[in-house]
Design brief:
Largest sheet: 3 strands, mixed
Number of helices: 69
Distance between the termini: 144 Å
Structural class: mainly alpha
Strand order of the largest sheet: 1-2-3
Strand content: under 5%
Radius of gyration: 57 Å
Mean pLDDT: 80
Oligomer: single chain
Length: about 1450
C-alpha cells in the first residue's frame, strides 16, 4: 500500500475513534441530564456530581453537550436548568485555561441568554447563569464584557443580574474589570435616579461597592496592573456623583436592606472621593453613619464602613475628625461593651471592626483616646470594664508606637482591675491585657511585678468543670477558663518573650513556697525550669549571682522540701510531680554542689516512671517509697549534719502549710523522719521529735498516721531516742490531769486525750515495725507493748508502779480490777481500738520478720489474741462500718504464726468467733457508698481466709483440715444463701492452700476424704450459682489432695478430675434438668477417683444431706447417692447394714416424697448387687416393721428378676429355722408354751411387704407352688403359738388399758366394722396405734394385699374372734394373718368362695350354711390347699398339679 494511503487510513481510524468517544460522552451527558428531573434531591446532586466528573475527563464534549441540551430543551424547568448551569460553571472553572474561544463564546451566549431570558427575578437559575459568566470572565473578560455591555444600554434600566454580574466580575477579576469602569460608570450614573425599586437600588449599591473595592485594590497594586497610569482622580467625579445619590437620597429609605447596602458602599467609596469633598462631607457623613447603630441590630456592616471612612479621613489629614471624636468614642465604646455570643459570627466580626476603628483613632489621637478609656477601668460596671480592657489590649498591640511613651500611665490605671477578684470576665480580660503588656515591654517598668503576681494568682485558681455552653460574653465563665488562659500566658511569656527573662528570673521563685500558690506550681516549675536552663547556658556565675541578689527568695532547703513534698501527688495540677522534679534537677547547683552527678541519674528515672504510669495505675505507696529512697540517697551524698539539720528544720516549718492536705502532710512527716534518721546529732533528733509531738493536730485523724510514720522511720537509726521521747512526752504537762490507772473509771467527755492515746499507740506500732529486727525483740514486750496497753486501758499519766516483769500480765490485771469493781473497761472510741489493732499488727509483723522469730517466746501472744477476739465479737453483725474487724483478724493471723502455739481451745474459739463475725454479716444494701463497703467486705473476707490458713498451717494434716471444715459445716448447711456462699468460698480457699502446701513424706491415706467430699457434693446444686461453682472447686481440690496422698507429683494433671472444671463453668445459669445431670456427672467423677475405703463415709455424709432445707441440694444428694451406689456399690458388701440403718433413720426424719423414692431406689440398687446382705439387714429391723422399713421392703419388688431372688431368700429364711420353740413359763405348768421364733416371723412379714407391691406379680407366678406350700405350712405351724415376750410387752404397752376386742380378720382395715372398742371404733385393727407385730404386719397386709391402698373385701373368710378362739387351740395371730392374707390375694388370686356348703364336704353333720361363716385355721388350711373357685375341690389346677405335688412332698418333713 502506498505510504500516503496508509497515513490516510491511520488518520481516518483515529478520527473515527475520537468521534466514537465524543458520541459516547454526548450520549452519557444526555442520559444524565434527562435524569436530572428526578424528584429526589440526593439523586439530583449525584447527577450534578457525575456531570462534573465527566467534565473533568472530557471538558469540551461535556460543555458542548450541556449547551446543546439547554438549547434543545427550552421548556425544561428552571430548577433543572440551574443544576446543569452549575455543572457547566464547575467544569469551566476547572478547565478555564484549556477553553477555546469558540466554546467560550458559545458558553457566554448561553449563560447570557439563560440569565436574561426571564424578566422577573428567578434567583437560583439566574445566579447560576451569572456564575458561569463570571467563571468565563476570568480569562475571556473582553468577550464577556462585550456581551454584558450589549445588555447594559444608556437610558434603559438593565436586567438585575446584568448589574450583579458586573459587580461579581469586578470582585473576581480586578485587573480585567477596572479598565471598563469608566464606561460602566458613565452609563450607570444616569440610571441611578431611574431606579425606583429597592431591589434595583440594592444591586446598584452592591455594584458601586465592588467597583470601589476593585479600584482601591488596583491602585494598591499598580506595579502589577496592566495600566499603571490609572489614578484615584480618574473615578473621583463619577464616584462623588454616585455618593451624592446614595447618601442624600437612598440612605434615608425606610428599607433596612437598602440602608445597609448604601452604608456598605459608602465605606470604600469614601477612599475615592476627592479630598476636599471628603473633608466637606465628614460633618454629615460620620453622624449619619453613627445614627445607623440605633436603627440596626446587626451593626457589622455599619462598623466596617465606619472604619473605612475613618481610615480615609485620617489618610487625608482631616481636621474636622477631631470635632467628631467624642461622639465616635462614645458610640464605639458602647458597641464594644455589647456582650459577645460565639454562636453569632456577625457579632464577633462587629467587635473586630469596632476594635479596628479604635486602632485608627489611637493612631490619630492617642491622648484623647486614653483620657476617654482609662477612667472607665475604674467603673464597677462589669461590661464597661471588660470592654475597656479589650480596647486597651488591642491598642497596646496595634498602636505600640503611639503607646510607648504612655506605658507608666497605662500601668498605673490597672490598679482597680487587679483588685477585682470576683468577676471572671474581668479577670480573663486583665490576663489578656497583661499578656499584651509583656510582649511590648510594659512589665519591665515599675509595677510590672504586680502584673506577674496577678498572673500567678490566676494560675493557682482551682480547676472547675467546663460548662456545656461557654462564650466570651456569658454571664458566668468558669474559673478554669481564666486559669487555663493564665497558665498559657505565663508559659508563653517565659519561653517566647526574651525581654521578660530578666523580669521573671529569679522573681518567680518567690511563688514556690507560699501555700496560696500551690495550684500554680506546675506552670511555675515549667517556666522556672526553662528560665534556669537559659541562665545556666549564660554561665554559672550569672545564675548564682542573680539568685543571691534577691533577699525574698526561698532558701535551698525550703525549695527542696517544697518540691519533694508536692511531688508525692504527682498527677495533681496537670502533672506537678514531673514538673517539680525537673525544676529540682535544674536547681541542683543551688541546692548543693555535690548533688549534680547523682541527680543526673536518679531524677530522670523518677520522671520516666511517672511518664510510664497514669494516675489510675500508679501505686502511691510505691511512688512515695521511691521518693523517700531518693531523699535518703540525697542525704547520704551530702553527708553534712548542718545541712541535714537545716533541711529538717525547714520541713518542720512547712508542716502548717499542709493543713487540709492530709496526703501531702503525711508524706512530709515521712520526709522529716527520713531526714532525722540521717542526722547524727541526738539533740537535734530529740528536739524535733518533741516539737512534732507538741504541735501535732491530734484532732485530725489523718495526721495520726503521718506522725507515727515519722517516729517509725526515725527509729531505724534512733530507736532509743524515739522510745525515750515518747515516754517523756507522756510525762509532760499535756496529761497532767491523769492520775494513773484508776482514772479509767472516771467518765470523761474529752475526746482529745483519746486521740492523743491513739496516736501514741500508733507511734509505738510504727517504731516496732521500722526498727532494726535485732533490736526490736528485746524491747517489744518491756517497752513497746507495755506502754501501748497502758495507754489503751488507762488514762495516760505517770507510769504505773509495776515493773517490766509484770508486762505480760498487764491485760489480765486490768480486767481483774474491773471485774471486782463491776465496771467495764471498754473504750468507746473506735479510732483508738483501730490504732491499737494496727499497732499489734505491726508489732507482730516485726517479730515475724526477725531472724530469731522461731526461737522467740512471745509471752503476750495469748493475751493479745484474746483482746483481738473481744474486739471482733463486739463488732455489729448488721453492717460492716469500720475496718476494725478486718484489722483484728490480720493481727490474729500474724500472732498465730508466733511461738508458743495457741492451745486447742483458744484456736477453736478464734476460728468460731471469726467465722461467726464474718459469715453472719447481713448483705450490704445498695447505696452511694456501695463500692466502698464492698471493697471493705472483700478485704475482711480475705483477712478471714488468711487467718484460717494460718491456723491450718499449724496443723497441715487431714485431721487439721477436718477441724477447719467442721467449724465451717454449720455455715455450709445454713438456710441463708449468702452464708452458704461465703462458707463455700472460704472452704475453697482453705482447700487450695492445703493443696498448694501439701507435703507428703510417706504414702499415707487421706482418711477423711469421703466426709469432706460428701459435705460439698450436694452444694453443687445450691440455689446460688457462685455457691455451686465454689462447691465444684472444693471437690476438685479434694480429688487432687487424694492424688497427692497417693504419691502423684504436685504438677500432675488427672484427666478425670480436670473434667470438673468444664462442669464448673456449666453451673452458672442452668435449668434444673441440666443441673441434676451435672450433679450426676460429678458423682461419676467422684466415684472413679474415690478410694473404696472412703465410699461408705461419703455415702453416709451425703445421706445427711437428704434432709437439707435447700430442696435442690436434697434432690442432688439423691442423684449422687444413686449414682455412687450404681457405679461403686459392688464394694459395699460389709457396709450394707450400716447403709440400711442410715436409710431407715433418714426416712424417719423426713416426709418428703423425693426422699422416700430415693431411699427405695437406693435399696433397689444395693440389693441388685448384694441382695442377701440387704435382705438380712432388713430382716434385722425391729418387729413389728415400721412404715419406713415396709417402704424399703417394697422397693425390692421393682425388678422381677430381683424380686424372684428376694422371695427365694425369704422362703429360705422362713423355712430355715423352726417356727416356734417350747418353754415353760412356770415350773409347775403342765404343758410347755410355744413361742414363735423371730427369723421366720420376720421373714413372713417381709414376704408380705414384698408381695404387697403390684410389681411383684411376675415373680409370684414364677414361684407360685413354693409360695403356696410355704405359706400353708406356715399357717399350720401357728396353732397355739405365742408371740415372743418382748413383742408381747410391746403389745401390752401399746394397748395401755384393758384388753380390747381384737379384729382378727386379716382383710379388714381400721374402721371396717370387724371388732370395735367401747366407742364403736376399731380398737384392735391392723392400723391402730399399737405396735403389736400381728396388728402392724396385718395392717400393712390388709391395706395393700391386692394393690396399694386397697383393703380386702368381704369375700375373704374371717377368722374366729377372741371369744371363739378362747376355747380352741390358738394360732399365732401375726403369722397366720400374714400367711392367710397372702394366700387370699397373691398365692390364690381367685379367692375362697365362702358361699359353699361345707357341711357336706367336711362330713360332720352340721347344718348347711349359706353365706359367710367363721372357720377354724386348722380347718381352713387343707381347704385352701385344694380349693379354687369354679373347679372341683379335690383337684388342683392342671397346670400346677406337678409343682404342687413336688412342693407337698418337699414339705413332708415339716411339723404340719
Amino acid at each position: 500500500m502506498p505510504e500516503g494511503a496508509a497515513r490516510f487510513c491511520v488518520g481516518h481510524e483515529e478520527t473515527a475513534a475520537v468521534d466514537m468517544a465524543e458520541s459516547y460522552v454526548k450520549k452519557l451527558c444526555t442520559t444524565l441530564m434527562d435524569a436530572v428531573t428526578d424528584r429526589d434531591p440526593q439523586v439530583q446532586e449525584q447527577i450534578c456530581s457525575a456531570l462534573c466528573a465527566l467534565g473533568e475527563a472530557q471538558p469540551g464534549e461535556t460543555l458542548r453537550a450541556c449547551e446543546r441540551y439547554l438549547q434543545r430543551h427550552e421548556k425544561l424547568a428552571h430548577p433543572y436548568r440551574a443544576m446543569i448551569l452549575k455543572a457547566v460553571e464547575a467544569v469551566v472553572r476547572s478547565h478555564i485555561s484549556n477553553l477555546d474561544k469558540d466554546m467560550a463564546r458559545a458558553i457566554i451566549l448561553l449563560a447570557s441568554s439563560e440569565m436574561t431570558k426571564a424578566k422577573d427575578l428567578v434567583p437560583d437559575w439566574q445566579q447560576a447563569a451569572s456564575s458561569v459568566l463570571v467563571a468565563v470572565g476570568m480569562r475571556f473578560i473582553n468577550a464577556v464584557m462585550e456581551e454584558l455591555l450589549s445588555r447594559f444600554q444608556p437610558g434603559l434600566l438593565p436586567h438585575h443580574f446584568v448589574v450583579q454580574t458586573l459587580a461579581s466580575l469586578a470582585a473576581s477579576n480586578v485587573f480585567g474589570m477596572v479598565p471598563f469602569l469608566t464606561s460602566i460608570l458613565s452609563t450607570m450614573l444616569p440610571m441611578l435616579p431611574m431606579a425606583k425599586q429597592d431591589v434595583t437600588r440594592v444591586v446598584f449599591c452592591s455594584a458601586l461597592r465592588h467597583f470601589s473595592e476593585s479600584t482601591l485594590e488596583y491602585l494598591a497594586n499598580l506595579d502589577q496592573a496592566p495600566d499603571p497610569t490609572v489614578r484615584k482622580d480618574t473615578f473621583s467625579s463619577e464616584i462623588f456623583s454616585a455618593y451624592d445619590v446614595l447618601f442624600n437620597h437612598w440612605l434615608q429609605s425606610r428599607e433596612a436592606k437598602l440602608r445597609l447596602a448604601v452604608v456598605e458602599a459608602l465605606g470604600p467609596m469614601s477612599h475615592l472621593l476627592p479630598n476636599e469633598r471628603l473633608e466637606e462631607q465628614l460633618p454629615r457623613l460620620i453622624p449619619g453613619v453613627l445614627a445607623l447603630y440605633k436603627k440596626h441590630a446587626e451593626t457589622f456592616h455599619v462598623s466596617k464602613s465606619l472604619g473605612q471612612i475613618l481610615e480615609a479621613a485620617v489618610n487625608v489629614g482631616s481636621r474636622t475628625l477631631e470635632i467628631q471624636l467624642d461622639a465616635l468614642l462614645a458610640a464605639l465604646h458602647a458597641q464594644i461593651c455589647v456582650p459577645v455570643e460565639l454562636s453569632s459570627p456577625l457579632v464577633v466580626s462587629n467587635q473586630k471592626e469596632v476594635l479596628r476603628c479604635f486602632t485608627v483613632l489611637a493612631c490619630f489621637a492617642p491622648d484623647r483616646l486614653l483620657a476617654f478609656l482609662l477612667p472607665k477601668l475604674d467603673t464597677n460596671n462589669e461590661r464597661v470594664r471588660v470592654g475597656s480592657l479589650q480596647v486597651l489590649r488591642h491598642i497596646i498591640n496595634s498602636a505600640a508606637a503611639q503607646m510607648e511613651v504612655r506605658k507608666l500611665f497605662i500601668l498605673s490605671s490597672m490598679r482597680h482591675p487587679l483588685l477585682d477578684t470576683n468577676n471572671k470576665q474581668v479577670k480573663r480580660a486583665v490576663v489578656q491585657v497583661i499578656s499584651a503588656m509583656a510582649h511590648h515591654g510594659y512589665l519591665e517598668q515599675p509595677g510590672g511585678q504586680a502584673m506577674m503576681e496577678y498572673i500567678v494568682q490566676q494560675c493557682a485558681l482551682p480547676p472547675e468543670l467546663q460548662p456545656k455552653r461557654q462564650g466570651l460574653g456569658s454571664e458566668d465563665l468558669p474559673a478554669d477558663s481564666v486559669r487555663a488562659i493564665s497558665i498559657s500566658t505565663l508559659y508563653l511569656i517565659s519561653t517566647t518573650v526574651d525581654r521578660m527573662s530578666d523580669v521573671l528570673w529569679p522573681y518567680l521563685l518567690e511563688f514556690l513556697t507560699p501555700v496560696q500558690f500551690t495550684g500554680a506550681l506546675t506552670p511555675l516549675c515549667r517556666s522556672l525550669a526553662h528560665l534556669a536552663l537559659k541562665r545556666q547556658e549564660a554561665g554559672a556565675d550569672a545564675f548564682l549571682s542573680q539568685y543571691e541578689a534577691s533577699a525574698n527568695l526561698p532558701s535551698p532547703y525550703a525549695i527542696t522540701a517544697r518540691l519533694l513534698v508536692v511531688s508525692s501527688d504527682p498527677y495533681v495540677g496537670d502533672g506537678r510531680g514531673a514538673a517539680s522534679l525537673r525544676l529540682l534537677h535544674v536547681l541542683h547547683q543551688r541546692i548543693h554542689p555535690l548533688l549534680g552527678p547523682r541527680w543526673e541519674t536518679t531524677i530522670p528515672r523518677l520522671v520516666q516512671h511517672l511518664d510510664e504510669c497514669t494516675e489510675e495505675t500508679l501505686s502511691r505507696k510505691e511512688w512515695e517509697e521511691k521518693l523517700l529512697m531518693f531523699l535518703r540517697d540525697t542525704l547520704a551524698v551530702v553527708s553534712d549534719n548542718t545541712w541535714v539539720s537545716q533541711l529538717s528544720l525547714e520541713m518542720c516549718k512547712q508542716l502548717p502549710c499542709y493543713n487540709g492536705m492530709p496526703q501531702e502532710k503525711n508524706f512530709l512527716y515521712k520526709c522529716i523522719g527520713t531526714t532525722l534518721g540521717a542526722a547524727s546529732s541526738k539533740e537535734v533528733v530529740r528536739k524535733h521529735l518533741q516539737e512534732l509531738l507538741e504541735t501535732a493536730r491530734y484532732q485530725e485523724e489523718a495526721e495520726h498516721e503521718g506522725l507515727a510514720c515519722c517516729f517509725g522511720i526515725c527509729a531505724i537509726s534512733h530507736l532509743d531516742d524515739a522510745l525515750a521521747q515518747l515516754e517523756d512526752f507522756v510525762r509532760s504537762d499535756v496529761f497532767r490531769k491523769s492520775v494513773g490507772i484508776l482514772s479509767i473509771f472516771k467518765d470523761r467527755s474529752e475526746s482529745e486525750v483519746e486521740k492523743v492515746k491513739g496516736t501514741l499507740i500508733l507511734c509505738y506500732g510504727h517504731v516496732a515495725a521500722q526498727a532494726p529486727r535485732e533490736l526490736v525483740l528485746a524491747r517489744v514486750e518491756a517497752d513497746i507493748l507495755r506502754n501501748m496497753f497502758q495507754y489503751f486501758s488507762t488514762k495516760v499519766g505517770r507510769a504505773p508502779p509495776w515493773g517490766h516483769s509484770h508486762g505480760p500480765r498487764l491485760v489480765t490485771l486490768l480486767l481483774s480490777v474491773v471485774q471486782v469493781l463491776g465496771i467495764k473497761v471498754e473504750t468507746k472510741d473506735p479510732a483508738l481500738k483501730l490504732c491499737l489493732v494496727q499497732s499489734v499488727c505491726m508489732v507482730s509483723q516485726a517479730i515475724c520478720g526477725s531472724a530469731q522469730a522461731g526461737a522467740f517466746h512471745f509471752s503476750w501472744k495469748a493475751e493479745l489474741v484474746a483482746h483481738m477476739m473481744e474486739f471482733i465479737r463486739a463488732e455489729p453483725l448488721d453492717s460492716l462500718r469500720t475496718p476494725l474487724r478486718k484489722m483484728a483478724m490480720v493481727a490474729c493471723t500474724l500472732l498465730v504464726s508466733l511461738e508458743p502455739p495457741l492451745e486447742e481451745q483458744m484456736r477453736a474459739e478464734v476460728t468460731h468467733g471469726c467465722l461467726h463475725s464474718v459469715m453472719a454479716l447481713l448483705p450490704e444494701p445498695e447505696g452511694e457508698d456501695a463500692s466502698d463497703r464492698k471493697a471493705l467486705y472483700l478485704d475482711t473476707v480475705h483477712a478471714l481466709e488468711d487467718l484460717l490458713t494460718s491456723l491450718l498451717h499449724r496443723n497441715m494434716t487431714p485431721q487439721g483440715l477436718q477441724i477447719m471444715v467442721e467449724h465451717l459445716n454449720p455455715w455450709i448447711k445454713s438456710p441463708r444463701s449468702h452464708e452458704r456462699e461465703r462458707a463455700l468460698g472460704v472452704s475453697a480457699c482453705l482447700l487450695r492452700y492445703f493443696l498448694e502446701h501439701l507435703h507428703v513424706s510417706a504414702l499415707v491415706p487421706f482418711h477423711n476424704l469421703g466426709l469432706l467430699v460428701g459435705l460439698f457434693s450436694p452444694r453443687c446444686a445450691d440455689l446460688w450459682p457462685a455457691t455451686r461453682q465454689e462447691a465444684v472447686g472444693c471437690i476438685y481440690s479434694l480429688l487432687y489432695l487424694q492424688l497427692g496422698y497417693e504419691g502423684f507429683a504436685r504438677d500432675y494433671r488427672d484427666d478425670v478430675a480436670e473434667q470438673l472444671l468444664a462442669l464448673r463453668d456449666s453451673l452458672v445459669h442452668p435449668d434444673l434438668s441440666v443441673l441434676f445431670h451435672t450433679c450426676h456427672s460429678i458423682a461419676q467423677i467422684i466415684g472413679k477417683r474415690l478410694p473404696p475405703d472412703q465410699l461408705i463415709s461419703l455415702l453416709l455424709t451425703i445421706f445427711e444431706a437428704l434432709g437439707d432445707p435447700d430442696k435442690n441440694c436434697s434432690h442432688a444428694a439423691t442423684v449422687m447417692i444413686n449414682c455412687l451406689l450404681k457405679e461403686r456399690g459392688g464394694v459395699l458388701l460389709e457396709k450394707v447394714p450400716e447403709i440400711i440403718s442410715m436409710l431407715r433413720s433418714k426416712l424417719q426424719g423426713t416426709q418428703e416424697e423425693h426422699v422416700l423414692k430415693a431411699a427405695q431406689h437406693s435399696v433397689y440398687l444395693l440389693a441388685s448387687q448384694h441382695r442377701a446382705a440387704v435382705v438380712s439387714s432388713l430382716l434385722g429391723s425391729p418387729l413389728p416393721f415400721d412404715s419406713h422399713t415396709c417402704t424399703l421392703w417394697r422397693a425390692l419388688a421393682v425388678d422381677p428378676s430381683l424380686t424372684t431372688q428376694v422371695l427365694r431368700l425369704l422362703l429360705e429364711k422362713m423355712n430355715r429355722d423352726v417356727p416356734f420353740k417350747e418353754s415353760r413359763a412356770f415350773l409347775l405348768s403342765s404343758t410347755p408354751d410355744r413361742v414363735a421364733t423371730l427369723l421366720p416371723l420376720a421373714a413372713t412379714c417381709a414376704l408380705y411387704e414384698v408381695l404387697s407391691a403390684p410389681a411383684s406379680g411376675a415373680a409370684v407366678l414364677e414361684l407360685y407352688p413354693e409360695l403356696f406350700v410355704a405359706l400353708l405350712l406356715r399357717i399350720s405351724c401357728t396353732v397355739g403359738v405365742q408371740l415372743p415376750r418382748n413383742l408381747q410387752a410391746k403389745e401390752r404397752r401399746s394397748s395401755g388399758g384393758p384388753p380390747a376386742i381384737r379384729n382378727l380378720e386379716p382383710c379388714r382395715g381400721p374402721g371396717s366394722g370387724g371388732g370395735s372398742g367401747p366407742e364403736g371404733t376399731s380398737s384392735a385393727g391392723p392400723h391402730m396405734g399399737d405396735k403389736a407385730p400381728g396388728r402392724r404386719a396385718g395392717c400393712r397386709m390388709f391395706a395393700s394385699a391386692s394393690s396399694p391402698g386397697q383393703q380386702c373385701h368381704s369375700r375373704c373368710p374371717g377368722l374366729p374372734d377372741v371369744e371363739r378362739l378362747a376355747a380352741k387351740p390358738r394360732l399365732c395371730p401375726h403369722t397366720s394373718s400374714a400367711a392367710l392374707c397372702i394366700l387370699r390375694h397373691r398365692v390364690w388370686p381367685g379367692g375362697i368362695n365362702t358361699g359353699w356348703d361345707l357341711h357336706k364336704n367336711l362330713g360332720q353333720g352340721s347344718r348347711p350354711v349359706r353365706g359367710p361363716r367363721v372357720w377354724h385355721p386348722w380347718q381352713m388350711a387343707p381347704l385352701c390347699l385344694f380349693s379354687e373357685p369354679g373347679r372341683d375341690l379335690a383337684s388342683p389346677p392342671p397346670s400346677q398339679q406337678l409343682s404342687w405335688q413336688r412342693a407337698l412332698l418337699g414339705g413332708q418333713g415339716a411339723e404340719a
